[in-house]
Structures are given as structure tokens and as C-alpha cells.
Here is the input.
Amino acid sequence: MTANTTINPPGGYLCIVLHAHLPYIRHPEISYMMEENWLYEAITETYIPLLSYFNNLTADGIPFKITMSLTPTLCSMLANELLQERYLNHINRLIELAGKEVRRTRYDAVMNRTARMYLERFSLCKHFFTDRYGRNIITGFKNLQDAGSLEIITCAATHGYLPNMQSNYNAVRAQIEVAVRSHDKFFGRRPKGIWLPECGYYRGLETILDRSGIKYLFMETHGLLNADPRPPTGVFAPVRCKEAPVAAFARDIECSRSVWSADEGYPGDPHYREFHKDIGHDLDMRCIAPYIDPAGIRINTGVKYHRVTDKHKPEKALYDREKALSRAAVHASDFMYKRVNQIEEIAKSSHKPPIIVAPYDAELFGHWWFEGPEWLNYLIRKCALEQNTFQLTTPSEYLDKHPASHTCAPAFSSWGDGGYSHMWLNETNEWIYPHLHRLEDRMRECAKEFNHTGDKLEIRTLNQMARELLLAESSDWAFIMKTGTTVEYATRRVKEHIASFIRLYEQLKERRIDESFVSLLESHNDIFPEIDFRVYC
Amino acid sequence: MISKKNRALSRVLKNILRADTVRENPAKQETQAPPNAPAYSLPTDIPKSYDDTYVRAIPKDPQNTFVYWEMPKEVTRVSVFPDKGTAHVGNDEVVRVQEQLRHNANNHRQQHDDNNNQWQDNNNLRQDNNNQQQNDNRRWLDENSHWLNNTKFWPDDNHSQRQDGNRYRQDDNHWQDDNRHRQDDNHWQDNNQRQDNNHQRQNNNLRHDDNRPRQTDTLSAMLDNLITQCGRYIDECKGHEYTPSPSSGEFCKAATNTETQP
Here is the structure.
């Protein structure tokens, strides 16, 4: 069977969106910081496997269209030399650990197979990382973009939750414009679309997006269902936002449920790998000590031997990779046929081919759901070879063929728990906002006051103030405070950025800038090296 | 002889490899912090107060708006509400304000109530819009250590409905009853006109007694601005309700639990 490159006309479209984001975490001042591992784990388990599968698809002549948002913070970390070097150390340690595991499990055939799989994967990751991409995996994404398979979009500069900033136009504007410029730097073109952080939308946001050249955005389902007026096509066609020519796509609830749902979702299958049982926690300390936190704190290493088995029982059976992959193929078929049925049903009452938007956190694939990249690989292949009802597409491609015909004002919404801002504004994190609002006001005030300054130190100070503010605005800190995971770290980060900003502000206003302090901050928080504080004017 | 040569070669190779390792990883030394370097060297001291007057509102969901209010220390040093004397200074500064405003334009009344029970129940900025029996609109502000915490704004006064969770009141009568905020549905839907309406409301309903300190006038103006912000938001959410079905609730939870942070 040949790939369905020419379904004419297709009954509809499926738009898969992967949102890849991590907060900016880089600590040159210490040799080990546990939170930096988030990046290393994501590179090993998500980004490189996805790139690998996408490249294989291209090599096999399978047509596919995927949309990915790569946030500016993530791109900045991926391109950072220090973090690249540290990742290399990390993957070397993993290879060493996997080698030891192959020896340790030599008398257990099932475990030994799994250990060998890890050794092979880690070695491949290192090969991809060093040899293929020259330590900068952004190159891999950019190549796919240039080949037309991947549409890379941006996000707010530091993933700031925009509805909580809406009282300061310039703060929102800076988050968007800095992101667009950063995207341009990394990918050689300005982004056409944006993934709003946490899908947080408020009415009127589109005017700022439009000013930065953004053509479309994604939002949560009820953002469109509660739009004024409610679009007759529901979430199966983009709408044109009322206040600016920006198209809004909303996520389809059925697609989300298949993957996200704790009960119905595919990742809960008994044959899939169990995330929470890791040798970092299970092995004897004498064996695992070199591969966990140097302070002796046990952490996940990424080497796991068990499968989900029964979600409600602590006893876990050993992981069988082959069975897990066969389940991934079954689930890919299930997902595809559900979309076929869904599109056929919707198309009956729609005057133009519907589009189903299926957005997910990229880190779900591989990190949380170990077989996720394989599932996606199977899905893309099956969509190309086993059905003729719909095509994979990107928002730009869809809009070119079917421009948004309905104009409406979408409603305030997010994809957080409850559908609004509760996750990022509650008793655990609301203390942040009075500070952030002041900093935003002061940043604007300084940007206007020093707009025409030619003093290099003043410019450096103002640029660093902008960086500190942007980093403090990251939605991740508020999220962590709410979920209670690494609260101490998140609190410290917010306080550091606020305090640093205030000190810079005071020094600037009093015309007694401490250059060594500016340099210290520049070396610690070196994100957006080309930032121009005038974006706050 | 060969063995000696091999050993010598081996030593040379080892040295070369070692040197290569150092050359290969120029950043390796950067990853090693000095043994006694502090884990953090950046400041973390953030101010408790910015010592100025500041009010902000952030829409939280269709039922609630987070509001905070800060005032300068000099204001808290003045007995803002002399009749009941509720301004306290010192480290535990607490200023409590209650404004009860009558709708009857001929009989504006303001009270500064220091009823502790009432305060405990109402650590909120709240609007009681359809309480026609008393025909009063009440606003409470509670500042604790300069920050107004857990502040909520409810567009309706139906407690049971509010406690039910994610339901937004769509009762038209409710809106028509809201004399302060909403005199005319069509009027309300027009942003500019709505602001005019609010402006008028400020003039009509927030008239202060002559003997009140000027700061309170400023405060009232700010509150009005605040209510305008809230009004804009309510307008946006009007008529919509978000009632997550069991399935959407599930995926929201799943999404929450599987965000990017490990």
C-alpha cells in the first residue's frame, strides 16, 4: 500500500501538536543541580527519540506533518555550551550505569534484555547528540522544519502565564516579542504560530500577537466553545479572533482523553513501562551512589525494569519491551480509527473539511510514557498507509487551504486544572504577583526613561533587568509551588530574580551601578543574549 | 624488548589520551565548582512592602478575581477610620476597611465596621449585588501585612451556588437587580459605555463624608478602577458556564499531573 500523499479531497485533517518546554535552569556556580536533570532526561527520553523517528519516517518516504512548539527557554538551554557539556557527562554516566546493569542482570534473561536495551539507547543518544547534531539538537529540529515535515512554533519567552500579566500590556508584549526574536535566531524565521503558555488566553491577547506577526494560536476547548458568538463549527475549525486577524485553534477533547486520561488513556496499559519504579530508588546505595545526587539523595536514573501491571497494586511485573511495542501499535490503530470515525461523522454536517487538533506535552512521549515516541511513529505510518479519510496537517497548511471564516471573541481559558487560572494563582503562589506587577511597572518606567541612553553599562543593566523579570515570570515556578514538588527551588528562583531586579533597579536609578554585580547576573542568567530592553517601551 | 616497547608506548598513549581528555572538555573544569563555593551567590531578599498605594486585580475564573491592595506606611499611621479606630501600626500592621454604600443617592451612608466575626467571614473583596432587602452594596478590604490575600470577587450573592463550584450565574434578573454594576444589559455590553457607567457610579455612590481622610478618596477611586477591571472580566464570562464533565475533569487532572516537571 502506498502512502496517502494525494487524498483528494481529504475528508478532514489531524493536527498533532507537541509542546516542548522546560524552565530555564542552568547553574554554573555549582557542579551538580538536580533540577538540571530535567533537561538531560528530556533530551535522552523525548527529544532524541522523537528526532530519530522523524528522521526514519523521512528516510522511509512517509509523508508527515507535525507541529512542535519549542519554547525559547528550552532552545536556550539546548544551545548552551555548559549544559551541552554537562549533558555529555550525564549520558556518559548513564552508559556506564547501563553497562554495569547488563553485567548485574546477566542471570535474569528478561531483565538483561531490558538492560541491554538501555545500554543501546543511551549509546545511540550519545551518538546522535555528539556526532549527528554536534551537541546542539536544535539542528535536528531545524532540518526537519526546512524539509517541510515539522512546523515549529514559539511560546512566550519564559512561558509566563499571560492572563496573570494582562494588566500590564508591555509585560505581555515583551514576553511575545522576545520569544519571536529568539525563535528567529534559533530557526532562521519568525514563527507563524504560538503555543500560549498553559493555553492561557484572555480576550484581546490577539492584538499583541498580531503585532508580532503571529498568525494563529492554540487554546483550550472551552475557550472556543464559550466564544462570543459560539462558532457553529465548534472546535473543528479555526476561528478568526475578533480584535485582530489571528486564527484560534482549540484542542479536541476526544484526542486528549485517549492519551491524557489516567483511567482511559493509553499510557496506563499494563504492558507499558512503569515510570515510578526506578533503580535510582531501588538499588543498594553502594551500587547506585555514583549515579544519583552527590548528596546521597536518590533520584530517577531512567533505568526501570517493571511495567505498569496493575495501577492499583504495588507489585509490578517485569517489563517486556516487545509486548509493550505491540501494544503501542494496537493503540496507534485504535487512535487512528477513532479519528476516522470522528472525522466522517463531523464531515456530514460541515461545509469544509474539519480539523482535529491533538496537542500534547512533548515530554509525555518518552519521559512519562516510555513507549510514546513509538506510538507516534506507528500512528504516523498507519495514517499514511492504512486509511484514506484524513491527512496530517499543520495549522499554516490548513489555513492556506481553508481560511478561518467565522469571527468571534474567544473566552478566557487555560488547560490547567479547572480550566482557568487556579493552578497559577492560589494560596501557594499568589504572593508572587504583587512583586511581578511592580517589577513590570518599573521595567517599563526604566525602559522609557533610559530609552535613548548610550551608556553601555546602563544598557547592560537594563537588559539584565529584562532577563530577570522574564525569568521571574515563568509559569513553572507557580506551578511547582502548587503541585508541591520542588517548592524550595521554585521559591528561591522567584526570589532571586525579584531581588536581583530590584537591586539593579535601585542602582540604575541612583546612578551607582555595580558592574561586578551586573556581570555576575549576566553569567548566571545568560538567557536571551541579544535582548533589547526597549521591548518594554 | 618488545614488551618494554609496548609498556613505553602504552605510557605515552595514556598520557596523550589523558591530555586529550583535558583538551576535549574545556568546559569540564567549569562544571566543577570550587570546593567551598556557596551554592547560591545571588540575593534573595525581597521587600515586604513597596510602600506605595497600589491595587491590582487578576481574573481567576468566572467566580473569582484575585485582588490585592497595598498602601504606604504613612497612610496606615493615620487613623483612617477614627470612629472605630482600626488602623494599627508596627510589624503586624492590619488595616481593615469596610464600606457600606447605600444605593439611594439621597442617603449615602458609609460605615466603618470593626466586627471581627464579620471580618473573619469576609476576607474578601466582595460585591453583594442582589441584596435588595438592605439595598446595600458592601465592600470589604482586609490588609494583612500590606498584602490583601485570598481576595475574591463574586458577581452574585448566592452563597449556595457559589459553593457549588464551577457554575456561573446566568440569571438575567440577577443582573437587572444589580443597580450599581449593571443598569442596562445593552449598556453593559458596550465597553465604553460601561466605563461611563462605572464613572458615574463612582460619583454617585462613592461619595465620602467630609471628615474622611483624603487617602480613602484615593482608595475609593482605585477600587472603582478595580471594579471596572472586574466588570470587564465579568462581561467576558457572562452567560458562559464551565462545567467540566467527568471525562474533561479527568484529563485536566492528568494534564496537571503530567506537566513538564518530573
About this structure: Chain B is about 40% helix and 10% strand. Chain B has a mean pLDDT of 42. The radius of gyration of chain B is 30 Å.
